[in-house]
Design brief:
The complex is a heterodimer of chains A (372) and B (123). Chain A contains 9 helices and 20 strands. Chain A has 372 residues and is an alpha+beta fold. In chain A, strand 7 and strand 8 form a beta hairpin. Chain B is built from 4 helices and 10 strands. Classes of the chains: A alpha+beta (372), B alpha+beta (123).
């Protein structure tokens, strides 16, 4: 099969990344920064200071219409009808068999919902939403909107210097603000396990905002390489690797994202299967793995039981810069998913000892407000 | 003493019939932070082009191929505890293994240093 020539899309900050020393790679159809000074340095910087990520490749969507919350609930298993204004919820777009088409963040924003989906899947997601939602729901893809993430223990100090009132946000809350004179939607959320913010601004304003943030000496730009190792340490799945249509929310150990009322009532795509899996367990389950030695075990490695039978596969693996050891996640037969279970991994004909480990590998440090 | 390079960015420094093998500065820059290296044990017999060693960055694994045929006489044990040595000094202390070269005429297939440095600029 002939490979089609991929025409890469350019981020609004493309020249900014290059000027800051980024090495650019192709990702999700975009030319994107994979690293600046180096993955490990950027990773550790984010865990100790504040990292600035450009995630403008992600899809930013709005949904308007009567009972838009109930309409979205037909495709997403999350509790959206009871979601308060300015609150975010992690959810998943499901196919009719309960397989995961994408994972996403949904926010109730006044009379509509604001939804952020993965860059690689956004066009397919839009097609799904348009085809499967009632005609009264109007979807807008905000193509002229950029998205930045500021993550790390000093993120709040940095952002509060520019936007004092963001201190009022607790984890998984968002609101409209003005940053450096530009209107922005800012939420306290992210993909690193750290406290931090995601900042949605017009593409035309994003360079100005990025420069305001990077002017603080606690902030450095962080590439996709560290974004991946940070999210893996935080135990957060990556769509297309740890999640796909062959996995369900229960298999993926994401049942926290299925609301209590939704469990009782169903009424979402794939509900029969997912409610049955909630009741009696799924055949496989996503787990964390601590790997012995120093060599990373990566996506595609086989997971074997003590007798050498194949019981699953690794879906993500790396060397943890924080823990200074290899870590991985993968799917195993549910009876072997208990923490402490000893397993073997097979990669390029070599066997590795591994132990099922609770995730996150590195504790989350979200800013949860009392009584929020 | 002579220094030669392969198209896969290995180098081999030859003294007598012993070659010391590593990866080039260009290769370590392309790999990024190296977190693991596995070197061959002494006594192992290698053909030219054999997968002799493994090097892993945070992002990906790469094989290191033997530039020549021969018998491994030493692997660099320092890399097990300090794989980042390859990033810091790729063409010096970050060597991978030493090999007793079976047939020195195989060196004629490799690039000399000037040719390699020029070629890398074009990549």
């Amino acid at each position: 099969m002939a490979e089609t020539t991929e025409i890469l899309q350019v981020l609004p900050l493309d020249s900014w990344h290059r000027a800051h020393g980024a090495r650019m790679v192709s990702f999700a159809g975009y030319s994107m920064p994979v690293q600046y000074e180096g993955v490990i340095a950027e990773h550790l910087w984010t865990r100790t200071n504040a990292g600035l990520f450009d995630v403008s490749h992600m899809g930013q969507l709005t949904f308007h219409g009567d009972r838009v919350d109930a309409a979205l609930e037909s495709l997403l298993p999350g509790e959206l009808q009871l979601l308060k204004d300015g609150r975010l919820r992690y959810s998943m777009l499901l196919d009719e068999e309960g397989g995961i088409l994408d994972d996403l963040m949904a926010t109730r924003r006044g009379d509509h919902f604001y939804v952020v989906v993965n860059g690689a899947t956004k066009h397919d997601d839009i097609e799904q939403f348009v085809r499967r939602l009632p005609k009264g729901v109007v979807l807008d893809h905000m193509k002229e909107q950029a998205l930045l993430a500021l993550q790390g223990p000093r993120a709040s100090e940095v952002l509060e210097a520019l936007v004092p009132s963001v201190s009022e946000l607790g984890f998984m809350q968002g609101d409209a603000f003005t940053i450096s004179g530009m209107p922005a939607w800012i939420s306290r959320s992210g993909y690193t396990g750290e406290d931090g913010f995601e900042i949605s601004v017009a593409a035309a304003a994003v360079e100005h905002v990025a420069n305001s943030l990077i002017a603080h000496d606690a902030v450095k730009p962080i590439g996709l390489g560290a974004r991946d190792s940070l999210r893996l340490e935080a135990g957060l799945p990556l769509y297309g690797h740890d999640l796909d249509t062959s996995t369900t929310p229960v298999m993926a150990d994401l049942q926290f994202a299925i609301g209590k009322r939704r469990r009782a009532e169903g009424g979402f795509a794939g509900d029969m299967r997912i409610l049955a899996e909630l009741e009696s367990g799924a055949a496989q389950k996503r787990v964390g793995l601590n790997v012995e030695g120093r060599q990373p075990v990566r996506e595609g490695a086989l997971i074997l039981d003590g007798e050498g039978n194949e019981v699953g596969r690794v879906t993500s693996g790396t060397f943890s810069p924080t823990l200074q050891r290899p870590i991985a996640m993968g799917y195993v037969a549910t009876p072997l998913s208990a923490p402490g279970t000893a397993l073997k991994l097979e990669q390029r004909s070599k066997l590795f000892e591994a132990t099922v480990t609770p995730m996150p590998f590195v504790p989350h440090r979200y800013h949860r407000k009392q009584g929020a | 003493m002579s220094l030669h390079f392969t198209g896969e960015h290995e180098w081999i420094r030859v003294e007598g019939d012993v070659g010391t093998v590593g990866i080039s500065n260009h290769a370590q820059e392309a790999l990024g932070d190296i977190v693991f290296a596995e070197v061959p044990e002494s006594g192992r017999s290698l053909n030219k082009g054999d997968e002799a060693a493994v090097v892993e960055s945070v992002k990906a694994a790469s094989d290191v191929y033997s530039p020549v045929a021969g018998e491994v006489i030493e692997g660099n044990t320092a890399l097990a505890d300090d794989p980042a040595l390859i990033n810091r000094d790729p063409e010096g202390e970050g060597w991978f293994f030493k090999v007793r070269i079976a047939d020195k005429s195989q060196l004629n297939d490799l690039m000399d240093e000037a040719a390699y440095r020029e070629w890398v600029k074009t990549l």
